[in-house]
Design goal:
Elements lengths: L1 H4 L5 H4 L6 H17 L5 H27 L3 H28 L10 H12 L5 H16 L5 H11 L5 H18 L6 H16 L3 H16 L6 H9 L6 H28 L12 H9 L3 H29 L13 H14 L4 H18 L6 H6 L9 H10 L7 H15 L6 H17 L6 H8 L7 H17 L6 H4 L24 H25 L1 H6 L1 H19 L6 H25 L1 H6 L1 H28 L5 H27 L3 H20 L5 H22 L18 H6 L4 H4 L9 H12 L8 H6 L7 H6 L5 H23 L10
Amino acid sequence: MPRQHAPAFTPEAASASATGGAGERQSLPALQAKMKRDPEGYEEELRQLRRHFESSVFLFRQQAALASTSSSSSSGGGGGGGAGDVAKELGDLALFLSHVAPFYPDDLADLPDQIGGLLDTNARALPSGLRVHLVQALILLVNRKIVDLEDTMELFMELQVIGDRAVKKLAFSHIVHSIRRMNQTHKNEARNRKLQNILFTFLQGEEESRAKRAFTILCDLHRRRVWFDERTANAICNACFHVSSRIMIAAVLFLLGYENVEQEDDSDASSSEDEAQNPQIILSKEDVYKANHKGTAATKKKKKAKLQRVIRSMKRQQRKSTEDTGSNYYSPLTYLKDPQGFAEKLFSRLQKCNERFEVRMMMLKVIARTIGLHHLVLLNFYPYLQRYVQPHQRDVTTLLAAAVQACHDMVPPDAVEPLFKQIVNQFVHDRSRPEAIAVGLNVVREICMRIPLLMNEDLLQDLVLYKKSHEKAVSIAARSLITLFREICPSLLVKKDRGRPIDPKARPKAFGEATVSIDVPGAELLDEDFSSEEEGSDNESDTFDSNDEKELQSAPGAKQLDGLSEANKLDTNEGVEEEDQLSEDEDDAEEMDEDQDISDNDSEENDDELENGSDMDEENDVSDDEELSENLSDSDEGSDQDDDSDHDDKSKDSSCKANKRKLSDYLGQLNAADASLRALKKLAGAKKAEVSRDEAGKILSDEDFKRIKELKAKKEAKLALAQHGLGKGTDTKSVTFKMPSSDQLSMKRVDPSKLEAHIKRKLTKEERLEMVKAGREDRGKYQARTAVKQKKTGGLSNRQQQHKKKMPLAASRAKAARSRQEKKKQQKRSGKQFRGRKAWK
């Protein structure tokens, strides 16, 4: 039967010049190009090739059935040769028809079903080359949109598990690139949901190979931010509960390494975007001018270097804060629908599983990360950690980092206190190694940053004593603990360790206590800026008032005010009996207003006298205080001794009370305004600003928010300058540490390597040899000093030049004379030997 259909594909149908199998293969590309140029003119040839393709498929199936049923080796060998020829011809025809399928949609409508059916039923029995050609043909049909990806998705998933590496790679790349291309311009949620349901079904199945391939596709699309939604994130997280331990390990590894992958992927982008999106750093012109123009060359160089360090540190801090707590921060664990259930289920599996230590440690880190991100309460987790907190424990820093990550302000301190004491008792004591002490102090600092209520006064003072240690890592860890508690609770420290904290009465929040913000963060900076602008305008108004003092003095209104004030003073001193207490109060209020106006005029007239005679004002204030105290004592004595005195005494007492009230109010206003007209105007301007803001309902505009952002940047720049010794009037100790918020701490991932910072690890012999060899690379071969001198090339040395230097004539003659005398003396000594005094003469 197959041979009856084979002659249908004749050389005339394929090409006029084709006369054989080789000719057919060579003519197919040419015929394909002709069909694309003129589809209608080659319809008959297409039908002949289509019949030949169907006959080849039928022939191949028959030969495969015969090969499977035959038992003799001879028949199997012959069938294998024929099957190879048919497979080659079938693969070429399938690719040819897939290329021309868009031009003949009616004639080749059932081509995808035929190719898909052949792959679905006989994929494992097909030869490798034919299988690859058929998969390529089907991919071409999907790319030409002749068949939808949803219809072939299950087939491509099955093709990845048949054991053919080339087909697996081809099918995987096709699925990923097709979904990426589909979501490139806009996202079709309906199609995405269908494809996700197919992959989720494979992932939830018990067969490991299919679930692994589905999980790999989901992770790749999620990492590429194609399927970056909650459904995909929850499906990946739920893979931690798969029956297969391999898939569980892969899911845990993905969740732990996702942040590292994101940092590696975004490192180049962040470095390239630094120039385009620089953090907002605002430095005052005065600081920049001082660094560039004031001082000697050496001091200017130092100031420039400090300024550059300030800018770099601020950029690094702002970039780090935006990466950690900004909108671009992401982890699949943040989108868990039921984080509490996820943590409890994974913790129960951790307690029951018999996996190796590395797997259990990874599960432990995922649980701790989930607890920290979502502020969960899992009280059984901390006693489980307590069993492994030992200095000799394997990967103890990773375990301690997980313990720190699982601490937050919603956990009861009583639940964490046994673990906290275990860490202190096991790591921080005199017989422990310096490395263990440093790690223990760093862990204590990180835990207290999240739960400050765990620390008491006695324990803190004991831990602070390690600041005197000779080991650098230990002393640095102890000083960092001091810096932390200077910020959160200075009262627990000894007086000499407190320094100058910003808030001496600061205390940690009680368990369950929450701070509710009642205004916009940073609005107080806007108020301070407004008051500083008012002060600048007051300076300008003061100069104007001082120039127009004569006009103010010559104005008729001033004389009238003086007359009124004198009359009012006389009326209050007479003490009229007919006025009741209410009228006295009203008159007192009017007198105070008028006196304040007059005092304003007097202060404007005598501004120079106030500035020059500040000592006289202080003496007058002291005398007024003494008079006030005398009046108070007199009134108290009169009220105690004579309760039934006559009417005159009452009028005198009332006048004394009125004078006392006036004087106290006047002194209070003077103290509040600091006896300065500028302060009074500043106070009035601030009150007006508060009233206007209250009337407006504290609604801030976009310009106000931009101004708040600028003021925050200025404040941070000022603190950074003060920390590097470039600021004026600020305490550097008070700006060395900035307490992060609870949300920032929960978002921040604790790095185990930072818990053992500044610890010098002992090098092995191989590492020491590598360091020695690295130091010898730029150094030549060893030679003796004399050999180096003998091989020296170039001029004479300084000593040789000194020997050959010509001396003056007198000096040379003197030297020659000295040498002759020395020679004569040597000859005398050498020619005769003294043998004592002669006995004869």
